[in-house]
Amino acid sequence: MGRVTQMTQRGPKATAERNRTLALASALVRGAAAAGLGLGALTVLVMVVWISSPFPDSGPGGALRAAAGVWLLAHGAGLVRPDTLSGVPAPVGMVPLLLVLGPVWLTHRAARDAAEPEEGRPRPSQAGAFCAVTAGYLLVVAGAAAYARGGSLRVDPDTLVFPVALVVAGAAAAGVWTAAGRPFGPLPSWSPLVLQEAFARTLFRNRSGTACRAAAVGVMVLLGGGGLLVAVALGRNAVAAQDAFLALAGDWPGRFAVLLLAAALVPNAALWGAAYGLGPGFSLGTGATATPLGLEGDPAVPRFPLLAAVPDQGPGTLLNGAVLAVPVAAALAVAWFTARRAAPADAPRAQAWSPRETVLVTLLAALGCGVGTALLTVVAGGPLGTGALSAFGPVWWLTGPAALAWTAAVGVPAALLLRLWRLRTLGWAWRGDVEVPEAEELPAAVEEEPAVVAGRPRRWWTPWRGRGGTEDEPEGESGDAGPGGSAAPAAPGAVPASGPAPEAASGALPGQGAGRGDAGFEPYDFLPAAPWHEKDFREARRASLKQGSGGLMADFPAAFPADLAADRPVAEPDGPETTS
């Protein structure tokens, strides 16, 4: 019988452990399924192109290995082409940014679904969901890297840890954070104490959130402006782009593959245009750089449709200088977004940010814009081979500081001017503060406790009505209710309930009630405290408390300590001192 009892006691613990294990296994499967779904979708697309090609270079195994290599390239992995005309393996480090969206979104969704609470199924902890989803995804990554080892696009093993594992872990962490409701909780204990104290303040979090959103707006405007520059340049050089497109493939399946590759590289081209508008430009090989001032050096440009947008050699013209409108527009967007929060349209002037706060938030947004632009330009370019093609695309350590400088130099003055503009009213008068209405102007609906309830005067315990007294008291009740709900008997000398209302004691004007909406209302309307310490009152209160205690109070009064009795005034010289 003891053995059965012991097994019964261990049952709930074993069930909890089993549920936790099942939840972690489910999260692991979700991560592996997300990786397999992304790999499968890209494999289907590659196989369709291979099947439709009239002259395939390899069998289905080579096409599958190429698909695995391209899928790993979408995570930031570096590839190597062993079969080149020179016999020297050529690196491929330019990541098509459009392909990155698929793996990141799938990992984010898998982690979010694994960490979201759902009725009827066990849920792992947030750390457990993150680790399980990341581990399941990386298992598929390791298998794909091993399978693509013998293909035409081999994976550099050093890039599997950074940045592939970092990209997967970041997307999984974002999914767990989304499942938790995107909280801005306390920082870890290892972070600096000053930062923890600042982050604990709601005002600091609001300002930081505004700066992050303004920085994201600035980066998006830079991307949009860069894409517009590329579109205009392609329109001007449409003939060269068409010739390059037709020269790369002579059949329709090949042209379809070139079109897909160009579409995947459109975000990269937009970042190139943004870097060109910011000033640093981009590299076209080791010996050429394109900036608004002109194209210098001997560019090593392969034939590709998007590269037809590269400016011609020679010094820049006035039209090339017009691209500086892109960073100006990004800085104005940051300033406008910050000014909207600094001076809301429906808030009084006292609630607007000070000029110092506006400047600090704008500078923080400029810093975020520079960091975001630098991170994106890291993967927007990269080597496409050896020799002259080893440096191709924008330089991140020049583009990021340029975005920071433009946004800070233009955005800070613009934010201050927009703040002043939004604080004005019609006729250039400054917005005033909202005046708080006086007590007599408040409507009668806010009077929560009227002076007279059910035809009887207002009691002194009305502010604490929710603790003991209620509106359903009998009309003739005059004692104080004890903890047990019983009323204390009327003591000699007490003011009867039918006596005058406590208006005179509270200082209210005659004829007025003591409700909250009246001018003479005081929050604590007590009766005169002179008879409060008399012996009869103390005995009456003690009898009421004893009756409501259910037998917990002793029959004798509490003894007062001798050291405190010396300092206590004696109210009744003929009787012992008692306490309530």
β-sheet strand percentage = under 5%
Question: Which strand order do you get reading across the main beta sheet?
Answer: 7-6-5-4-8
Q: What is the radius of gyration computed over CA atoms, rounded to a whole number of angstroms?
A: 39 Å
The share of residues in helices is: 40-55%
What is the overall silhouette?
flat
Q: How many E-type strands? A: 8
| Sheet with the most strands, sense and barrel status | 5 strands, antiparallel
Assembly type: single chain
Order of helices and strands: HHEEHHEHHHHHHEEEEHHHEHHHH
Poorly predicted runs of 5 or more residues? 1-10, 434-521, 571-580
User: Structural class, from helix and strand content?
Assistant: mainly alpha
Distance between the termini: 55 Å
On the 0 to 100 scale, the average pLDDT is 79
Number of helices: 17
